[in-house]
Amino acid sequence: MPKRLADDVARRVRALIEEQQLEAGMRLPAERQLAAQLGVSRNSLREALAMLVNEGVLLSRRGGGTFVRFQHEPWSEQNIVQPLKTLLADDPDYSFDILEARHAIEASTAWHAAMRATDADKEKIRLCFEATQSEDPDIASQADVRFHLAIAEASHNVVLLQTMRGFFDLLHSSVKQSRQRMYQVPPVFARLTEQHQAVMEAIVAGDAEAARQAMMGHLGFVHATIKRFDEDQARQARITRLPGDHNENSRENS
Predict the structure, then answer these.
(1) Where is the HTH gntR-type domain (predicted)?
(2) Is residue 198 part of a domain?
(3) pTM score above 0.85
């Protein structure tokens, strides 16, 4: 179908959404009914709907129809994410609250992804996993976030996906900080890779419970490891404040 025709049908679908005041999460009419309503062929409609899905206007759920997608609103980050960023800046211990929230959300996204992921979803997850192996910490941390977001997308649950996207910047900051600390400990980093692979393989195999357990195990490991790192760092700081060490350092510097 010529691009101009696809654009025209897509524009008319947008207009229909506005005219009928279809809100985010609401389902469009069945394909046959919508094609007749717009006076276009079903093939023309399919291409137009695919365009709108790619643009983020619609969400297509396999076997469930096409829905108006939740749009990211500017106030979302300002009113929800920004205060959390401020808390993290003032007290890094709030990162553990983020990990607990991720536990609750991502266990569900992994479960649903295993149940609903398409071949394209699985390929995207695989590519993101491979990118996490980059030797560049920044590239690897970005790929890590995209790996988790790809799983959320594969869940085909608009609420879970929008929640993950709304916290994208916060999640990126948390993951980057975690990876930078763990990257320096090869055995720990190797465990992260194994855990990501286990999550991916469970989703590809369609084993929802295994995917959920693998994700929970992964985030539990991250939580425990970061906590151990923090405790070790605090212990070292206490040691350096011992009077004997202070005097010894003073003599060495004199």
Answers:
(1) 3-71
(2) yes
(3) no
